[in-house]
Amino acid sequence: METKLARITEVAKMRPNEKFTSLYHYINEEMLLLCHTEMSGNKATGVDEVTKEEYETKLSENIKDLVNRLKSHSYRPMPVLRVYIDKAGTNKKRPLGIPAYEDKLVQKALAKILNAVYEADFLDCSFGFRPNRGCHDALKILNHYIERDQINYIVDADIRSYFDNVDHQWLMKFLKHRITDPNIHRLISRLLKSGVVEAGIKYDTPIGAPQGGVASPILSNIYLHYVLDLWFEKVVRRNCRGQAYMVRYADDFVCCFQYEQEAKMFYQSLIERLAKFKLEIAEDKTRIINFGRYAAQLCHLEGRRKPDTFDFLGFTHYCSKSQKGKFRVKRKTSRKKYKASLLKVDDWIKVNRHLPVKELMGKLGRKIEGYYNYYAVTDNRIMVDRFYNKVKRFVFKWLNRRSQRRSFNWEKYQLTYSMYPLPRAKIRVNIYNLRHHISYIL
């Protein structure tokens, strides 16, 4: 199956104007079994309340029945279960859609096919939910643009409730540029319009793609490829006298400009462009800031203490200098993400403080390693060390609340801690390592 998908990618790359007329047959027993194997077993269940283990008890029969329903077009996706999770750094909640298990398999198979077709079409400015591209890659390229090119202004933009406002009609039009298989169109339409269940009540979904759906990332990438990426590359950049770049991760993007006037023109054009496709910017989160090698000089002339900063992918970017006095873009964990991460760790220790100390520290250490893998990047050592010290004190606090009596003083805790220490932070990601990403900036 992987070989067949690779062949689709090869054809899509070699023939950029090719329209794929027959893809539906790839959603077969072999594909669905592969998707089942790759599915995580500890994910939350949808409205069907079926887990991977339960589905596996009659796996062959279930897969055959699913394939028969897909072939006869009698397959109907179940409504998506809508739950709400905390939004980092705020008191707001973020809606999350959880499909039924069988629908997850179909969506995963569909996502594999769509990725095979569109990976050759997506531009280098796009990094979200693509193979061999991640958040750190986006940060590296953004850093390169600002430090090495004549970038003086940043448009820090945010699309309001993007996943809730994807227009189905426009999405289907975009899909027809590459895929003319009516069966694929029918399947995607049914998935989009399957509805959501919240508090036991079903609601229709005439717009939007559920955030959390397995196929939602690739569908949103396709939508923004036509709405934003191609427009910026073919229209905006060509009409700019100075340098202009965009770095996008899913619906989060930053645009860099050499000239202030062109940044302002882009901002106005962006509002009109998004409105055409039923989207809008969150004006309270979108702004133009002076940022780059000359930002400090402009601040001095305007009587400001230091240049503005902007947040992107969980990091606050700010203007600074290297040890040799050269301009540098540095980054640290954003205040919102830092507080949210500490709150999660504090809650986890509180719930699991009954565990033996060795087991508690082992599990907590693995969680902290995951935090380091993302946030321990160039120039962010101070913030990850601060996170380590805070977590160490959280452990002390909650171990002392396991019973009515105080278990430790700080000196005794230090002795216990030396036996089961948490991992210390080391820089895991070098922002200046562009060896695998140089093609993006040529």
TrEMBL record:
Name under which the protein is recorded: Group II intron-encoded protein LtrA
NCBIfam families to which the protein is assigned, alphabetical: group_II_RT_mat (TIGR04416)
Domain of life of the source: Bacteria
Coiled coil region boundaries: none
Residue ranges of every copy of the Reverse transcriptase domain listed in the record: 66-317
